[in-house]
Amino acid sequence: MNITEYIRQWADRIEATMAKLLPGEDVEPPVIHRAMRYSSLGGGKRLRGILAVSACRAAGGREETALPLAAALEMIHAYSLVHDDLPCMDDDDMRRGKPANHKVFGEAMAVLAGDALLTRGFWVLGRLPELTGVAGETALAILREVSEAAGTSGLIGGQVLDVEAEGRAAILAVEHLEGIHRRKTGALFRASVLSGALLGGAPAEKLQPFAAYAEALGLLFQIVDDILDVVGDARAMGKGVGRDRRRDKATYPALLGLDGAQEMARREAERALEAARELGAQGDVLGALVEYVHRRDR
Amino acid sequence: MNITEYIRQWADRIEATMAKLLPGEDVEPPVIHRAMRYSSLGGGKRLRGILAVSACRAAGGREETALPLAAALEMIHAYSLVHDDLPCMDDDDMRRGKPANHKVFGEAMAVLAGDALLTRGFWVLGRLPELTGVAGETALAILREVSEAAGTSGLIGGQVLDVEAEGRAAILAVEHLEGIHRRKTGALFRASVLSGALLGGAPAEKLQPFAAYAEALGLLFQIVDDILDVVGDARAMGKGVGRDRRRDKATYPALLGLDGAQEMARREAERALEAARELGAQGDVLGALVEYVHRRDR
């Protein structure tokens, strides 16, 4: 198992599936489709999509089956980045190493492109039976997971808390920071893993190790992200290093020190690995992804 | 059939269903739920919801069954209004007779509240079987209708064309204006009617009169809206009269003259009535709604 090679291959297939499931740039009105494709294709680690694909595998399904689901998850992730970058939000000019959507297409089109990526994600979920042969009941269960994760108890709620917390780092406790990240990163990680497992045929009563895995991995991902922001190199991250600190945003290194944050990362990695081991041989990729997320370089 | 009374009663029930299906203002993080409820409850004609309810009736179903669907459609409609009003979009300060969402909660929260209303709409659609007892296949067919209507071939595409057309009224033809409105108003009208009919048990091959009805009614609604903007009274509309003309937005009266626009409205009303008659006795409310939309005062 060469995890880097695995990720590269499946990220390519997820990208190809997204390219097919998004409206083409020649479809009326072209500008919105250009804006949607600009911010969702040609970049990104595709981690949420990879999680869906490898959770499908871990549940005993074929990885190919999860490609449309993975594409939908990545569209929803891309929407959240486009809106987070808006001037009224985090006001970021760069994303994934290129100018943010609103810098290229303007604010109005960036709002609409985000709306459209979110809507297209749900559009794809509604078509999972025809795209993958999965039962309607399974498609609906996936819709319920993803819509819960994308809502105010997940993705949107996390961004709300994040916007509210800005400039108040000093008064934030680690528990509060975890509350933000459980929503902002964790919820969609969890939905990616659980919906991949559902698509792979996991019955509801077998989802517990998948949920435990996703929770630990989401937290690990965020801690490593914070650490990289302190010690990382600007170019490889595709955005300004030290950005969070300059804004006085709460981060794990700021709250726990660099050593404390690294220790916490080790603990979450161990929890995620343990959950992956519970899934047996088919959980191999999920296990390897823990190391990848933990050790990913700057 | 007193249509005004019918609308009042069912609008109240749709509102109550929305209030129940939206997260409460005490749920964390409260501010986003306050913002969501501010812009979706306590106002609006609930026309899309009423269309779903009365199309369900016309298809032979019980109106009550369509209440959660109606609530989901009204959440999606409310999201589109919140985002349309943003400073980077139409920059409207007032909506439904009160300050626009971003004037009360700020731009960041308005973007997020719109995102959350859209997401919650899909969340409700994923729960239609448990909320209404409808079959999973029907819930998925409804999701496909609504997600298509909300996307770039519908709601979002219409707003894109609208933003692009602003200030270019003179070079717009009636066909182009229809293209905008077929997307911006028509698509969600159509999805409301068709998904209500599906929920009421209409088989796919019986949807044609519903589609013809929705198309004519959507166009009628928009023409009347444009006419009201020319001749209407500011207070009753809840927004500034003459707003479209001041911005040099394309409208039917601007393109066809007031008489021409009124003639076109009569033609579309006749087409909608004809389609409603095809549905027999159960299509009575849909028929009465045509008169209501045509004659609605300012």
What's the CATH architecture name of chain A?
Orthogonal Bundle
Please mark out the parts of chain A with pLDDT under 50 across 5 or more consecutive residues, or reply none. Answer: none
Total number of distinct structural domains of chain A: 1
* CATH-derived topology of chain A: Farnesyl Diphosphate Synthase
Spell out the CATH superfamily of chain A: Farnesyl Diphosphate Synthase
Percent helix range of chain A: over 70%
User: What does the radius of gyration of chain A come to?
Assistant: 18 Å
Strand neighbour order, sheet with most strands of chain A: 1-2
Give the distance, in angstroms, between the N- and C-terminal Cα atoms of chain A: 23 Å
Per the principal axes of the C-alpha atoms, what is the gross shape of chain A?
globular
CATH class descriptor of chain A? Mainly Alpha
User: Kindly state the mean pLDDT of chain A as a whole number?
Assistant: 92
What fraction of the residues of chain A are assigned to beta strands by DSSP? under 5%
Q: From the structure provided, what is the oligomeric state, counting identical versus distinct chains?
A: homodimer
Largest interface: A-B, 50 and 50 residues
Number of strands of chain A: 2
Order of helices and strands of chain A: HHHHEEHHHHHHHHHHH
Output the structural class of chain A. Answer: mainly alpha
